[in-house]
Amino acid sequence: MMTQDEYVKSLRDMKTVVYYRGKRIENFVDHPAIRPHINSAALTYSTGKDGEIDENRTTLSHLTGKRINRFTSIHMTPEDLVMKVKALRGIAQKSGSCFQRCVGWDALNALYGVTYEIDQAKGTKYHENLVKYLLYIQDTDRMADGAMTDPKGDRSLAPSKQADPDQFLHIVERREDGIVVRGAKQHQTGAVNSHEIICMPGGAMGPDDADYAVAFAIQMDAPGIICIFGRQTNDDRKLEESDVDKGNACFGAVGGEALVVFEDVFVPWERVFMAGEYEFCGLLVERFASYHRQNYGGCKTGLSDILIGACATMSDYQGTSKASHIKEKLTEMSHLGETMYCCSLACSHEGTTNASGQCFVDPLLANITKLNVTRNVFELGRLAQDIAGGVIATLPSAEDLNDPEIGKYVQKYFKGVEGIATEDRIRIGRLIENLSSGTALVESMHGAGSPQAMKVMIARQMKLDKKKRLATDLAGITESEETAAAKARTV
Amino acid sequence: MMTQDEYVKSLRDMKTVVYYRGKRIENFVDHPAIRPHINSAALTYSTGKDGEIDENRTTLSHLTGKRINRFTSIHMTPEDLVMKVKALRGIAQKSGSCFQRCVGWDALNALYGVTYEIDQAKGTKYHENLVKYLLYIQDTDRMADGAMTDPKGDRSLAPSKQADPDQFLHIVERREDGIVVRGAKQHQTGAVNSHEIICMPGGAMGPDDADYAVAFAIQMDAPGIICIFGRQTNDDRKLEESDVDKGNACFGAVGGEALVVFEDVFVPWERVFMAGEYEFCGLLVERFASYHRQNYGGCKTGLSDILIGACATMSDYQGTSKASHIKEKLTEMSHLGETMYCCSLACSHEGTTNASGQCFVDPLLANITKLNVTRNVFELGRLAQDIAGGVIATLPSAEDLNDPEIGKYVQKYFKGVEGIATEDRIRIGRLIENLSSGTALVESMHGAGSPQAMKVMIARQMKLDKKKRLATDLAGITESEETAAAKARTV
Amino acid sequence: MMTQDEYVKSLRDMKTVVYYRGKRIENFVDHPAIRPHINSAALTYSTGKDGEIDENRTTLSHLTGKRINRFTSIHMTPEDLVMKVKALRGIAQKSGSCFQRCVGWDALNALYGVTYEIDQAKGTKYHENLVKYLLYIQDTDRMADGAMTDPKGDRSLAPSKQADPDQFLHIVERREDGIVVRGAKQHQTGAVNSHEIICMPGGAMGPDDADYAVAFAIQMDAPGIICIFGRQTNDDRKLEESDVDKGNACFGAVGGEALVVFEDVFVPWERVFMAGEYEFCGLLVERFASYHRQNYGGCKTGLSDILIGACATMSDYQGTSKASHIKEKLTEMSHLGETMYCCSLACSHEGTTNASGQCFVDPLLANITKLNVTRNVFELGRLAQDIAGGVIATLPSAEDLNDPEIGKYVQKYFKGVEGIATEDRIRIGRLIENLSSGTALVESMHGAGSPQAMKVMIARQMKLDKKKRLATDLAGITESEETAAAKARTV
Amino acid sequence: MMTQDEYVKSLRDMKTVVYYRGKRIENFVDHPAIRPHINSAALTYSTGKDGEIDENRTTLSHLTGKRINRFTSIHMTPEDLVMKVKALRGIAQKSGSCFQRCVGWDALNALYGVTYEIDQAKGTKYHENLVKYLLYIQDTDRMADGAMTDPKGDRSLAPSKQADPDQFLHIVERREDGIVVRGAKQHQTGAVNSHEIICMPGGAMGPDDADYAVAFAIQMDAPGIICIFGRQTNDDRKLEESDVDKGNACFGAVGGEALVVFEDVFVPWERVFMAGEYEFCGLLVERFASYHRQNYGGCKTGLSDILIGACATMSDYQGTSKASHIKEKLTEMSHLGETMYCCSLACSHEGTTNASGQCFVDPLLANITKLNVTRNVFELGRLAQDIAGGVIATLPSAEDLNDPEIGKYVQKYFKGVEGIATEDRIRIGRLIENLSSGTALVESMHGAGSPQAMKVMIARQMKLDKKKRLATDLAGITESEETAAAKARTV
Q1: B155 touches chain C (CB under 8 A)
Q2: For residue A104, what are the CA distances in angstroms to A14, A277, A374?
Q3: What is the number of domains present in chain C?
Q4: Are C111 and C280 in contact (CB under 8 A)?
Q5: From the CA of B84, how many Å to the nearest CA of chain C?
Q6: Are residues D172 and D291 in the same domain?
Q7: Residue B236 falls within a domain, yes or no?
Q8: Of A59, A189, A301, A369, which residue is the catalytic one?
Q9: Tens digits of per-residue pLDDT, B282-309?
Q10: Are D230 and D321 part of one and the same domain?
Q11: Contact yes or no for B431 and A475 at CB 8 A
């Protein structure tokens, strides 16, 4: 297992092609717009101190029995799934931002089970490939990105019906030694600072889309891969000298998403996990999405812990912490946070074993989790901004705070309760701003899928027929054949 | 273990004093206002058919190793707690109403742990009493009510400060062989059709309230106990001949609550579990409330399953089931229901062992559960009434439906889709009315405590100091001594 | 103008055929299930005391200049519309229930404008008929019901496509002297105690539905009309001797809805306002619905005033009125109520003159009004039940309260603050139960149309094209022809 | 009246001291961080084109009868108040941001009435001063800022109890020719680009706070005034060359708030409107706050119009505009927006004349308006981010879009529907980001006062006693003297 320092050092050896703000960034490790995301991801490498083993952050490989970083493991029991959620909450409480590494973990786990099932049905060898790759990851502790979202172009059209055939990542050539792929993956969290990327198809597909039914892993600095790093809310502040206005100077905000372009990238067969088995795309999406949606009640509750703490601190600083409406709002925030956490825990504890022997979350409850997140995080932000006060929208800059001419006015007039340093009040205000604005909210909405995607999955799994029977039984309805026939016609 | 029939038969032997609508009800077992609640409670006696054992509804006594009705067990593991939630959801899916028996179960469990701790601290013998009583209950499978809520009079005053000293149940005499108690317990679900009642103090208390710090068990037909059965929404319909308008003819609605008056009731010492140890009242309330709040994401989700099924059926009957807004609302209802379920599961899975060796739910998450219930059940009702249509508020009576003169008009004009029997549409409408109105909603609000009680408990357990530290660490705030002192002054 | 007494007396002369609970009710005026609704409607006849004129409740006829009951007037100015809303709120504050007479008023106003426009387009004489009828109503002060909702059968089918042709009211014969109609109108508020009924088609229609495009007025006791009075939540309590459990003993709850069957009813041509002009059905529905939706922020805010007052009184009685969470909830209730009121006022003040010279509400804002009502009334009910406490679901009956044996226990244990009569606390509890349960909520959801109907109208009127232009202008987008073409293809 | 160009030109003559990011900004008019706010304010100077008069944006002075910019008028009728709301919505539809000038308008109106009442009570001459100043403003069309919010230090302490006496703006010297004031006003919208500033006390005050009871007007470039311009979300983007990432390049976002420091500023008596009359502070705050809260259903609905249009455009661009959930969300957004608008209209139409002869909004409904805004704007933002998709959080920069190397990838992979320019999609995305994030939301929460301030005012005006009487009357409660006495004790 790597340490945090080894992880950062390992990135320096990568030749990943990264662009940001129209420039090629050679040394992305030390670039101020990117470094905070690296710091955040590095927290997943905190697996123990001074020779001690952290039992939460590490586990034993079910393949080799060796101790590995938990982020490289396959979930074999509900307890594993629960430990995942708790690890995510714990790290988020430290990072205050996305630490990115769950997505590759989820990709590995989704592919582990699905490749097994493809092989069973088709006589292919994808699972063998996946297991070999998994051993490599467990052994090297490399960070892998998980990539599902295609650009999609016109969303009302299937991959093969797009005007531009590259709007979904696809195989353009099948060679003896491997495949060549073209297209892109969007919104790729942590792509720039991952060692590997694991690509999967982004939706259910039909026979015409067979070339789009492709899953594989490849190193991020493979020839033909180009990362274009996206903008975030207040991303310019990351470039500033003072850390006062950054909100979360060390770890940034959200995940550092990038567009990852695949310009005819070669992938050897041993790294290919699906290549044409379109009928398994829906299953793979469902598996990956469910594992990924499970997470959000972990990490987002961790972030809400910080936000609640920041609001409570702000109230202390401003002399409002005894007001009943402040107490009420902090309690409500805790309620909203813990509700998300409950959902993550529940879908984990209720995990079941699938054909590959691995443990899969309860997919209905995993979708419930994420749908709550798309609402609760916004209400948390609203309450936080209520408690914090208008000051978070009008705070002057760190340059003003420290200005020899006018710094004294900022010091004087942005002070709260006597004895509290003005800078501390500003820092807490900026943290609240960071956690409740822009990119942070959008990520809670669309990360791991948009709300409508959850609703489709909930509708599919809510067992409406069983529920109808419960109701008609209780209502004393004995359906005649005619009634049953009439209903069958209307449904 | 008793069967359903044996349970009903056993009630006929009880001499419980029951009043309803100003009349003494001698044969309460066959009284149409009460019988549905008995039918509902009887479902907790469905522990197996034809010699087969139902592993969910029964378990092994941790005291004797014998197989017992699960509703008489002490939870020893998180799995026990989870089985409880699943049993509650399962029974609720059959009953469509409260089956009442969880409350006595929770009383037994709360007292099991707390008597142990009192004994440890005080050298008393309450736990021994409790264990003996538990063995009796496990052996006989008697149904026990759990009673916590006092009338409370002026809610701004402590028990000992009330104008009427009987507003909280209290000890009026301590005799050699036992105690004499006076007062009442309110809102007692299932009291009339329980064999036993287990009383507990209803709040934290001080030294002046020592006589109010009393817990005990006694048979429901003990001298001095009087039940006054309350009214429910549409309770008169239970007295009607036709079952069409009843909504849930067999099992009624909610729990059949009664005021239970204790007019100088004698309780032998061996049935006393607390008598003066006021400093443990808060703990007992917290334990009981947490166990009880755990339940609501079980049974209420079971009820929501029926409600969703009823709404889907109504849509089929009316020809609206293909409308996108109907599908969206059914999905939302499922989301609201499963969110409650997640919370119940989470607080169960996260249960921990307490001093007595028993497993206690996570109290924070149990309170989160119930707070969600006080909101989600209402929104479920609102959506149900949206889907059902105005017809559920204007349906004519069963007498009209069957009237020789005008029955034909009711048949004709309340018909939905061709081929569906009008009576079936009415029955489903009445079931929706039953599940989304009046008493059913109030119970979701106040059963196991009112929302404010949850908020107080959440506020107490939300670890605000830890959260503040997370925030200040992340914001880069190193608190000076002066800052720490200033904050200490403001909090 | 009639007085309240004259109104009640006038009903005794009606030969309306009324059925309730399977029985023909000859003297419906004094029937306890119906009388409260008559009392409620009678409040619309409170137009002045002792010779004084109430300027709010009366106005001058724009046709004759004579003083008339406002409920028989045509709105000619925005001020008229505003006075309507204020009159509705004022009466609701007294009745605590639906007083029914707005619906006929709205029917008259909707037909006034639409008949004018039909005549303009078609050369018909409907407006002349309507004006003559209006003069008759203004002169006699007769109460007219407005009837739009057909049974509808299978809601996915048009009138002419139903298996049963009578699922929508229609013309079965056109005679020289008039038309004969068959079918029914559902959910008819106040039908039993109206003198007249004004029928309108219930939706937009096509050429095949021409016989269903029929509007007319007829006296309620015309041959062939049969009323079947529906059930309400707790309707049996209206039959009880004591008024303690009734909640609102004098005025009942909601509107006393009935199914009104038209069994080949003859209507003379002079009372016909539409007979085949199917292309005007949509317009008529929009006009009627908008006028009717305007009302709900008037009357429902009046009801919310009572509910808030009842909750505040209950808090006083229970000793909780100083708790901050109670104050917060009462304030929130007021916020929810006044928001509905604001919407009603706004759509009235923004009324504009239509072709007939009459003033029409802003239809977009009228729909906004009602959509808020379908949400806010439910949240008001939820908060009321929160404040009131579980007691409203478990209160014993008035028979218990007054029982010589056990009345003393009810008196003692349902008492609140010392000095408050227990009966008063029960009465307030029952009023809260009445206002927050069952029928009262359903009426807020579906009266004047279901939420989806509002959404359809809002979507149609929200000027999306204009809004898109605002956005593209601001974003600096100059659309190329190609872009415009692409967008045209996608919309 | 000035034209837009004249307004901008007039600012060049101002010597206002402005700091931003630690630097003195001499030419603030052309500074890219400030200019958008000037452009926005300039829209209030669009009073007619080519000699034509815009009747909406201008009116006749009630003092002189001359035509004046409406933003300098005193509201004399409800129609004036309604025109205000419509003007605000109309301008906001153009600016997409705060145009700042309502706040000085509200200050003038609040002071107009209150100075009249002070003079009546105290025999002072403040109203005369105010009228003279008003004539000057009407004549010159100068833009005045309205300043109420003090820094407040420890919010649990009164002005005179603060550790630092300058935490509230106060009189430090009373001279023969005027007063000298010290302190600051926070969150001052439009301060930098106003000609004048009108200061008012920020809360109710007691006798000890008399020196804090000070109201006056002064030019923004008076000696001793220093502006420190605050940061906004993404404020750095305003400094970029390309306008693609700015969202709203021309008009910025929100209002350009500044801290305005008063370092011993001299104000001549003729510009003083209150100096010690502490007992009128509460009234002035209520007046100003009510006038100011009235606005938010105007301007924020205007902004929501743009946001809805932007989301609809984004859906067109992405091929999702036919999805039922998208239509539903757009409709809901319209509902949320129009609800705010209804409230603003209602509090305006219901305005009443006060002692000075001016028309005052309904203060209860004005507070209802703003409280809805503090919720609806957040939900609008949430729905907008839902519709827009994750892309708004991960869009690359304009530099990337136009880069010769990688621009082609951005062009290709951020394209939506065929035929739509990628840049157009990005522009709409950035506009949605701008309108739904950070500062824009915070302003909706705290501008014109925080939610708790509205709740306090609603609670004060909701006539609870009247509502209680309505309830007890209806419940049939005739209160005994004893009951009345008991209730008086509990309230």
Answers
A1: yes
A2: 18, 21, 22
A3: 2
A4: no
A5: 25
A6: no
A7: yes
A8: A189
A9: 999 999 999 999 999 999 999 999 999 9
A10: no
A11: yes
